[in-house]
Amino acid sequence: MPHEPCCTRIVELSELGKHSLECPHKPPAELDSKDVTGTSWYQTEFGLTSKPKHQFKHTLEVRAWEKQLRERADEGKVANHLSKATSEIKNYGELVSKSVPYYEEGNSPLDALHKAAVNYALAIKLKPTDPELHFYLGVVLEEHYHAAVVFGVVKKIGEQGAENLSAAEVSGRNEEISGICQLHGFKTDVALQQQLKALDMEYRQLKEQGQSAKADYVQTLYNWKAQQAGKV
Q: What pTM was estimated for this model as a whole?
């Protein structure tokens, strides 16, 4: 429908009230309901005309880990999962107290924490309204972060494991190496030999600081890069 012309007059703020009452372009005192009910959106929203049907393309699928989680939760009891989680946390304490450079695959402190977290998650599935279970799971996940990042707990990775790294793991290692290069004054895109030099400097520095676990992880990065140097 056609719009009424707008007022273009400029008035002082103190005169605005008087002008709004006298202006010939002021809106009508009574609104015509057809201005609203006659619009297409009103007709559609309030069922006067048929709404367009939305087409969704969605495939329902059950992921393997979700199925396994559901099946294991259905089989067990909350008390059983709590007992297993407590056992894994105790195992974690014993493993992390050992002075070893690496941990075997499947038997590292991180593996123990992961198993504890899984059991807490299974317990939560059986008893989702228990706040303590959510708290315990949060504590385990936080400890997992500290063990992996802060304390430098690493697993033993052989040559075959290094070759089978995923693209994301390779990218992550390269980012770590770039960060180490920057810490020691090298550019992020330096040649392989300079990267190895930066890793060696970082390794020696960590050893001097008594951070043996982190130093061993840097040694893993060094060996991985050195293998690449041998393939060039």
A: 0.40
